[in-house]
């Protein structure tokens, strides 16, 4: 008789203990819900292309295949690009976080902040594995300066109209030959506009940092990253 009571008590206890689980299962609703969004985890991009200009970047910068989230300028994930001798690249970026919305071939600094982007795809609606055929890409440091600084901030006055201010053309086809090793007309010391290896004595840098010419240029380029990019390019030899 005693054994039967003990057995009954155990059975009732187990049944009562299971009730919360049974209640939770019933209240959870449908097993399949067409409105449920399943987060992508560990996506992969397989890149093929031909990339030049990586050697023109000094230490402190890296050319990478990277993932970015929304307006965040800092890479959420990145892997360095190392082309073969002929420039060809075949590589994989894996483990991409679910929040990544853009995949880019870009230059980042030591803090993983984007300095310049050379190729971008929208990754927000992509499959878990994306095959990226990037073609030929110029990822050179001077290409970044032309695209992100001269084209955006300078060519309106320096070559985008009928005449270039001070005779200085900063358009894509003329900027390099107009700057490197050319004596600045407005320099009393006959400084070069760009003296390779010496940003401190390059008139381009002086004009961007000091009010020394008739039209003040110090408020044209205000981003510290962009000003550093010009200095680093000059000090690294002002390569094209």
Question: If helices are DSSP runs of H or I spanning 4 or more residues, what is the number of helices?
Answer: 5
Order of helices and strands: HEEEEEEEHHHH
Total beta-strand segments: 7
Summarize the main sheet: 4 strands, antiparallel
Helix fraction, binned, reads: 25-40%
Residue stretches low in confidence (pLDDT < 50, at least 5 long) are: 1-40
- The tally of domains stands at 2
CATH class of the largest domain: Mainly Beta
If classified by CATH, what would the architecture of the largest domain be? Answer: Sandwich
Class from secondary-structure proportions: alpha+beta
The strands making up the biggest β-sheet line up spatially as 3-2-5-6
Distance between the termini: 97 Å
Query: How much of the sequence is in beta strands?
Result: 15-25%
Outline: elongated
Integer average pLDDT: 86
Examine the coordinates and then state which fold CATH places here, giving the name of the CATH topology of the largest domain: Immunoglobulin-like
Instruction: Please state the CA-atom Rg, rounded to the nearest Å.
Output: 29 Å
Describe the structure.
There is one protein chain. This protein has 240 residues and is an alpha+beta fold. The protein folds into two domains: 43-139, Immunoglobulin-like; 142-235. It has five helices and seven strands. A hairpin with a 4-residue loop joins strand 5 and strand 6 (114-122). Helix 2 crosses helix 5 (224-235). The relative contact order is 0.12.
